[in-house]
Amino acid sequence: MSDVTLSAQKIVAPHRAEFVRDASETSQVPLVVEKPLPLIGRLYNQTWLRKIIILAFLALAWEIYGRYLNNNLLFPTFSETMSAFFTNIGNGVLPARAWSSIKVLLMGYAAGVTLAAVLTALAITTRIGTDFLETLTSMFNPLPAIALLPLALIWFGLGNGSLVFVLVHSVTWAIALNTHSGFLSVSRTLKMVGRNYGLGGFRYISKILIPAAFPSILTGLKIGWAFAWRTLIAAELVFGVSSGSGGLGWFIFENKNSLDIPTVFAGLLTVIIIGLVVENVIFRAIEANTIDRWGMQS
Question: Can you give the pTM of this predicted structure?
């Protein structure tokens, strides 16, 4: 064996004291053990349970205040309202009125979403479309939908046509504005990717813009739904006076005239329940299967 080989075997790498750890010391390092949350902590992390607790607290405050006033013509208690609610559920009046309102709402909402989609598609593909959408939004978005009700009565008469007209107005501008803002906020990199793949027109919008801007689109759909629902109830109050028929709005107005205030509150409670179901079940399911699944929202 050569002298060079012997010298290489004798070479020992230098040790730095700050990086040298005794084996006995490392064996005594405490292990990190994940401690399970207590039952209260696990329950607190459930969103649905927190919301139920909030609703229960509001119902309790409602009951206490109603008993304090002791005047069901002014403010019925929660128990009196629930009694009227289940009575009208049992006799089929509330389900029929609620379904009548929901059918009209679906027609107006679908028409408004379609019109908003067409306007936004034109705005994102052409400059004149952008100017057209911005001008119409500035003109009609501040205009309350219920203010168009007299014109709707003249143009479409008594019936669902007038209701659908005011619903389309209340839905279109909120959805179009949010969708267009979402399209404009899409990164230029994604837009360039779409162009490099030769996408254009509808394929470019459906493959690139809609997925990237879906959080804004979903926000617009939520706002449009809320506008449409409250506009429909307000419009039905007027249509109920005019034609003697209608959905939940007419149900509320009819019982107000007969001074059945617990039943009026039952109608209002039905409006609230439908709103909660749509927001926390339908829209939440859409959000969970799109935005949350795609990792677009923390």
Answer: 0.78
